[in-house]
Each structure stands twice: as structure tokens, then as C-alpha cells.
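Sequence in, structure out.
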Amino acid sequence: MRLLGTGIFALLLASTGTAAAGSITVSRNVAVRSSEVHLGDVARLSGFDRETRDRLAGIELGPAPVVGTGRLLPRAFVSAAINEANVPAGTRISVPERLELTRASQILPGDTLSRAVEDKLRGVLPRTMDVAEIRVPLMSDLKVPEGSTYEIKLSGVEGGGPITADIVVKDGDTLVRSQRVAVRVDTVSTLVVADGELGRGQTIGAGEVRVLRVPESRIPDDAIRNVAELEGAQLRRPLKDGEAVTRRSLELMPLVHRGDRVTMIAEGGGIRITAVGEALGSARRGDAVKVRNIDSQKIVSGRVTASQTVAMEL
């Protein structure tokens, strides 16, 4: 029994002292999925403990090719990179004559990018803004390296001017592509329309129209937006029910006539001053007119804002 136990113990010692060597087998063709190539991306590593395997897998083999191109690594280059990494003695290494690298790619759908721009813009627009529609051009699909990320940068949102969106695609820290699109935000505004059939020469006011809320893009440039603008107006042509009332369709009658007593209003810096004056001419809403101050007899100019009312600059 003693001899048998001694023999078994000797066998155990022999087995622990002669652990199997690991192996590194490099593939011939690999589609890499990151911007930098490491040995773990192109080779099968077996027979190593976890620490050694992770260290070998991290051996750097340079940058990955861009999408649509390839890169060839000769055996000598790959072997040198492996041998410089203090590979455990006895490791079996198999490297092909050359390693052909391509870059794995993915498609970023254009409609996905357009929706992302719209969502980003909706998140930064003021909540008080009544938005009817956000129009983002439909973008083409983008073929980019697998694992790429994109960022959307907006400009012009706070300035009230044209809004643009830059879609910036990066592969790690490397810029892949940047695309700029113009975005249109269609807000809701008021529009005065005919409430029924209206005839030429008819004087119109609040009783002959109604006010709608419609997208700004549907409103004519010279449209009337406020019923107060119709004071003293007559139609130059007939209007159909629901047709927009425009300045071209109106004949604005004078709201101030020569010799009228008018209210002079001057505002500015939180101050409001009123006085009585005499109109020295006739004028319609928005027209300039000269007025003589009754108390001071000074003549000043202002603009008609309503019937018998002239706004002056303070």
C-alpha cells in the first residue's frame, strides 16, 4: 500500500508540473467591429488562464480600415507584435501569410435620423410655443462603421432665425461624417376669414368675420390677423365663406380726418403720456399724420392706431 500511494503522489506531481501549453490561432479574414484592432479581434486564444488571455487579447495591431476598404497585415508584422508581448513559453502560434481586415458596417436609416432631429428639437423648444408641425427633410440612409454613434447639434433655436441640425457620426473619437439639414418649425397663428359670403364694397367688422387658428405656413403674407385691423374697412372684391381676409382685399377708410380732435399717446420706458391734439390731415390705420398739440401748439408726427387715436414717439 505504501508503494502504491507513493506512485500516485508522484503522478500528481508530474501532472501539475507539465500543464498543457496554450495556443494562438490567427484567422485569415476578419471583419472587425471597432476602430482599433487587437489580437483578440482576429485570433482564437485557448489554453491560457484568464489574466494571460486578457493580456494577449489586448495586443494592439493598429487602426481598423474604414468602411468599404481593407487592410492587409503580413505574417511578420503580426508575429512580431505577438512575440513582443512576453508570450508564455511553449505557446503554439499559428499566423497566416497575411491577415486581411475589413470593417464591419451598419446602416443608420434616414427616417430614424429625421425623427431623432425632430425629437431633439421638440425637447428644446419653449413650452409656450404653439407648434403645428416640425418639418425635417428625409435623409438618406448612412452606411457607417459598426458601433458608430451619432450626435445631433441644433443651432438657431433661440435666435428666431433659420434652424439647422448637424448630424455628427463618430467611430470612437474619429469623425466619420457630418451632415447639416435645415429644419422648419410651423407655429400656430390667428387668421381672420369671412364668415359667410361677403360682397364688394361691404363694410366689414367683427360681425362679418371669424378668427381661426391655423399653421403659419398656410397664412398669406398680407393676411389680417386681428379683427381690430378691420375698423373702417370696406371690401374691394367679394369674399367666399372661409376665405382669408387680406390687405389687398380691403379698402381701408381713414380713421382720422383733417380737423378731428384726436387722442395723442406717447409710451416708452414704462411711461405713458396722453394729450389732445388736432389732426392736420386724414390718415388710415398705420399711416403717418401730423398733429398739433392743443395745449402747446407744437406740431408733431405720429401713426394712426385706431379711430381718433395717434401714437407718438416719446
